[in-house]
Specification:
By secondary structure, the chain is α/β, with parallel strands linked by helices. The chain is built from 16 helices and 15 strands. Helices cover 36% and strands 20% of the residues.
Length: 481
């Protein structure tokens, strides 16, 4: 195992994370002049003269986003309410008129988060024509902004969502129901705001950056058919289990108000794409040729690991002149990796003597069959190493290393963001008498990496206070003979 290559991978990953830290992206997209009282958001300008500014926020990154807004606007902020995860409050950072409230322990809606949601609801519905509302949204924001439509109770709402999830409902179906029975999600926050102008800064944690799904879209127009929620519930045979209050809300004649697009503007200021672009820049600085392949990788971890191994085999064959560019293009186009685009192949002839860094991002899933400890990134690194071992005799001229890690610094219920795999991992395991299959089958990849090489292939960054899904990095390096 080459320690220098491992260090390169970690450095490239950390550069991708740094690019989407709340403090960095807010500084990049916001500019304020106290003299002219002009606020520039991305490329748009807003005159704040004679206006009161209010700030609300929800999500894992909301506190750090708000701190930068405080530094920028200072006492121009009349009032602010930020809903943040339980245990994340940094009291040393509070300086102005913004109040921070904790809730949603373990990312689950609770009474504390609902109390904060009520405070936010009260604030926005009492704003006026001279008020400017700035909203900060990031992943985890849905659990931190729970306010069911009356007379639905929080426990009734959460019970229904859990039942749907356990029945196999996907994220779009869950959100369709969640938005229909929420007083703030599905655009309701924007609809309720009485401010003259509402601006939302959004850090995306969902593949494809869909505004209506990030934190369940509190500032995005809900284009769902009002009947969708009820039909989804019936699809999973849960109608008979509904409380009377939910039935009352769902069967009531629902009239969606026209969405005030002219006074509500959403800006996605951070995403997986921004993160992987920064990773590519760092790869160049470390003398790798970066190739950004996809930001929307989804699917089952075993299938993605298998396809990544096929991707590596194709690249190595191309670099070794075993196949030409058109053949490489055909292979890439036939791989089952979401968002993979072969348009870059035509420009690769000049890089055959260079080391390559393949860069991908997204969020995959794990079918949990065991009772071990781990997450999708640990599992992917280990599965990839397993499949790579099966073809390593065809890759003799290359060193292959792979990093899979979450930009939030957490992979499942662990203290690590992910892990690193490599071409000789399986054979090296045998020397340490570790049975990879037993760890894979028990979904115990965290404990594998904890034992293997004394945990040196774990990626541990701590909580990063951001989240733009996962980054996958593959280094293809020629052997130095």
């Amino acid at each position: 195992m080459a320690k220098a290559i491992v260090n390169d991978l970690i450095q490239i990953f950390k550069s991708g994370v740094t690019a989407v830290l709340p403090e960095n992206i807010v500084k990049k997209c916001l500019n304020y002049s106290p003299i002219t009282q002009n606020l520039k958001v991305c490329e748009e300008n807003y005159d704040l003269k004679n206006k009161k500014v209010y700030v609300i926020g929800t999500g894992k990154a909301a506190q750090n986003m708000a701190v930068e807004v405080e530094k920028l606007l200072g006492r121009k902020i009349t009032e602010g309410i930020i809903s943040i995860p339980k245990g994340s409050l940094n009291k040393n950072l509070i300086k102005t008129n913004i109040s921070y409230y904790e809730g949603a322990k373990d990312n689950l809606p609770d009474k504390e988060a609902m109390i904060t949601a009520k405070k936010i609801d009260h604030l926005i519905t009492n704003l006026g024509k001279d008020d400017f509302l700035l909203i900060l949204i990031s992943g985890g924001g849905s659990a931190l902004l729970p306010l069911p439509v009356e007379p639905i109770s929080l426990s009734e709402k959460t019970t229904l969502i859990k039942q749907l999830a356990h029945s196999g409902a996907d994220i779009k179906e869950l959100n369709a129901v969640r938005k229909r029975i929420s007083a703030l999600k599905g655009g309701q926050l924007a609809l309720k705001s009485k401010a003259n102008k509402t601006i939302a800064l959004i850090l995306s944690d969902i593949v494809g950056d869909p505004l209506d799904l990030i934190a369940s879209g509190p500032t995005s127009e809900n284009t769902d058919n009002p009947e969708d929620a009820l039909n989804i519930i019936k699809k999973y045979n849960l109608y008979d289990k509904l409380s009377q209050s939910i039935i009352t809300v769902l069967e009531k004649n629902y009239q969606q108000k026209p969405f005030p697009k002219e006074i509500v503007t959403n800006f996605i200021i951070g995403s997986n794409k921004l993160s992987t672009e920064a990773a590519a820049i760092e790869a160049i600085a470390l003398n790798y040729f970066p190739i950004q392949l996809s930001n929307i990788v989804t699917g089952n971890v075993k299938e993605i690991a298998f396809e990544y191994a096929n991707l590596i085999k194709a690249f190595c064959d191309f670099l070794s002149n075993k196949i030409n560019a058109p053949t490489l293009k055909d292979i890439i186009d036939n791989l089952s990796i979401t968002g993979l685009n072969s348009h870059f192949v035509d420009s690769l002839e000049s890089i055959k003597e260079k080391d390559i860094c393949l860069i991908l991002g997204g969020e995959i899933t794990v079918e949990v069959k065991g009772n071990g400890l781990g997450g999708r990134n640990h599992q992917l690194a280990l599965e990839f190493s397993y499949y790579l071992n099966n073809i390593k005799n065809k890759l003799n001229n290359y060193e292959i290393y792979f990093l899979s890690a979450g930009t939030d610094g957490i992979d499942g219920p662990t203290d690590a963001a992910g892990a690193i795999g490599y071409i000789n991992l399986i054979s090296d395991c045998e020397l340490e008498q570790l049975d990879v299959n037993s760890y894979l089958n028990n979904n115990d990849s965290y404990n594998f990496y904890k034992k293997f090489k004394n945990g040196s292939l774990h990626i541990k960054t701590g909580h990063t206070n951001t989240n733009v899904m996962d980054i996958h990095l593959i280094l293809i390096k020629r052997h130095n003979y």
